[in-house]
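tokens incoming
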């Protein structure tokens, strides 16, 4: 019987995580550190001091080309080429203004959401791919391992978001525009480079139960009515999915895919029973 090595083999891989100080980001950073990786955590918030020898916290605005470039230099000066990149940072539904209809949305909100979520992901992906290309040109391609980009999508990118078409559209841009483009592009830069998207459903962050308490019916509408497992996704499940995609040992032939970590969500609840009854 064949024996299997089930280790992740992420030790000493340089992983950069954008949005690393956020709820999901901090859990993801912890997961990579537990796997033995060197981790650079980028976040728009001021960095907290860390005494962990394999962790570097850097302040960066991913919507700014100059900021991303400067942050990348700090990361590579510290730990070398960024082999694995997790493009997690975005403006999400917990911070964006909600609207009853698109007719009420200001163009500035639409523009800013795209600047961070779409443009920011593009700038992050470009910095990662340029770094890999430079390493190959310098003859260091053989030393690279776990060369992958994991972009974070959303169930909103699949199903839309009535109160936030700005958010849904940026996630669809990442999942259905940028991903298939990079699927064809990245292996031409480095033959083992992989690009995937992890697309979560509603995540049980510390903010989620507060929102559900403030908005009765949200738990049912978002995480139960059209969700097979009838519950939101745990942050650790998102982090584990990201680590799985990052590991060549586990997912060397997973490329150009969307991994849905959404408890089996199949769509959006269009109308509540109360809304339907009110029409009669």
């Amino acid at each position: 019987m064949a024996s299997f090595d089930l280790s992740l083999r992420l030790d000493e891989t340089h992983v950069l995580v954008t949005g690393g100080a956020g709820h999901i980001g901090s859990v993801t950073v912890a997961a990579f550190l537990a796997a033995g990786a060197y981790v650079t955590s980028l976040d728009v918030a001021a960095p907290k001091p860390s005494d962990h020898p394999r962790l570097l916290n850097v302040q960066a605005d991913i919507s700014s080309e100059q900021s991303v470039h400067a942050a990348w230099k700090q990361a590579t000066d510290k730990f070398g080429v960024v082999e694995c990149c997790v493009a997690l940072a975005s403006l999400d539904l917990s911070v964006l203004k909600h609207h009853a209809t698109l007719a009420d949305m200001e163009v500035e909100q639409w523009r800013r959401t795209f600047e961070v979520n779409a443009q920011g992901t593009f700038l992050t992906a470009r910095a990662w791919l340029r770094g890999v290309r430079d390493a190959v040109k310098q003859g260091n391609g053989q030393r690279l391992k776990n060369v992958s980009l994991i972009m974070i999508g959303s169930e909103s990118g699949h199903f839309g978001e009535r109160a936030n078409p700005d958010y849904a559209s940026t996630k669809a841009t990442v999942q259905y525009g940028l991903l298939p483009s990079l699927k064809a592009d990245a292996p031409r830069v480095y033959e083992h480079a992989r690009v995937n998207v992890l697309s979560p459903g509603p995540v049980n962050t510390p903010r989620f139960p507060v929102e559900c308490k403030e908005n009765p019916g949200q738990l049912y509408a978002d995480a139960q009515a059209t969700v097979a497992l009838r519950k939101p996704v745990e942050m650790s499940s998102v982090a584990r999915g990201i680590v799985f995609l990052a590991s060549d040992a586990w997912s060397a032939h997973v490329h150009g895919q969307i991994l849905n970590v959404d408890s089996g969500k199949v769509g959006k609840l269009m109308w509540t029973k109360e809304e339907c009854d009110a029409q009669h």
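note: The beta strands are 14-18, 38-43, 55-59, 84-87, 148-152, 194-200, 258-261.
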